[in-house]
Amino acid sequence: MAMRMPEKMLALAVGALALAPAVHAKTIAVAAGPDAQKRLQEALIVAEPGDTVALGAGRFALTDGLSLDIKNVTVRGAGMEATVLDFSGQEGAGEGLLVSSSGVTLRDFAVENPHGDGVKSKDADDIVYYRVRVTWTGGPKETNGAYGIYPVESSNVLIDGCKVQGASDAGIYVGQSDHITVRNSISETNVAGIEIENSRDALVTGNFVTRNTGGILVFDLPNLLVMGGGNTLVENNLVVANDTPNFAPKGNIVGGVLRGTGVMVMANDGVLVRGNLMSDNPTAQVLVVSYPRAFDDKRYNPYPRHVVVGVNTYSRGGMDPQIEGKAQLLASFGGALPPVLWDGLGKPGGAVAAVKGTPALTLNLAAQGDGLDKAKPAQVSLPEPSTTVDPATVGAPAALEARIVS
């Protein structure tokens, strides 16, 4: 007859097994200097779950993209200004760093001048970006990489304390993902500062977005693997002076973002915009629109639904809107458009609602796909919201916080 292990001993054994990877975890130090490409990529290959790849201070001159496909690895530098992965001499057109494994923490380093995206993670759940900087040092250019920080097709994403400058699409982009937090980050001189696309349960909070074409974008697009974006909270951000001319490559969907847009919601379902300070965004502080192009995806709803504009602080916006007939409009509204601009498509209460007393303008477009040349602008009183986003349902899991304590 087999003897059962006492419950206390069984619990101790299980605990020991759970701690085993941490006991054997090691630190792999990689210094800047000659052969940095080879030494750093080798470290990312030989790392095992629980290991830390520690990047020393200095500039790592790299000639090709890097990749990591081992779970539960930390890549840690000496600081976003101290450790620089310099891709100015990159020979290919790919990402600076591609992560394709879950449980990864990326922190305290910079990526400069990658030919493609800065740092991309795909199918990488439970990922943390902490104090990561991505910069194209030549300023806004169409030839810059599309995305700075770019997690896609993932669950549980935390982006905290990061900084991106110069992306020709979006500085911080999260796509086709769920349970997301983007906070305490700076995004400037990109086409889009922060973009949440075809994603759910996102929290965008405490960020500073400035000098972009558009500050914070919440989009839902057709013909993607993951559809049905929504349940997003955009709160307590500084959305200031997003006035850079659009420099996206021709054909990109963000190429249609109007210079001077603060927060833009397109074809999404369930977005709450509240507690933000919006200032000096020359077209619109908040823009709510339908998808403007033709599409053949039967799963797709091109209209905004249940977008709620809560209490925000508005200052000096709408003074140079990038729409036809702006001179007459500005004259009608005393030199500045109302803070909320809606394309007029969808039912007012079903498409967009706002707290009582929020000034708004509708373009009165007649059909999805109509251009601004068909606009018939008029002031509109938006209904008060009957539903809104529950803050308890958005954001990355609290368990990810433990990785950024030290």
Task: Give an account of the 3D structure.
- This protein is mostly beta strands.
- The chain has 2 domains: 25-168, Single-stranded right-handed beta-helix, Pectin lyase-like (Pectate Lyase C-like, 3 Solenoid), CATH 2.160.20.10; 214-395, no CATH class.
- It has 4 helices and 32 strands.
- The strands form 2 sheets. It has a 20-stranded parallel beta sheet that branches. A 12-stranded mixed beta sheet has the order 4-7-9-11-14-17-20-23-26-29-31-32.
- It is elongated.
Q: What's the Cα radius of gyration?
A: 23 Å
Could you estimate the helical fraction of the residues in percent?
under 10%
Mean pLDDT: 93
Number of strands: 32
Largest sheet: 20 strands, parallel
Distance between the termini: 50 Å
In terms of DSSP E residues, the strand content is 35-45%
Unreliable spans are 1-5, 7-21
Number of helices: 4
Give a quick rundown of the structure.
The chain is built from four helices and 32 strands.
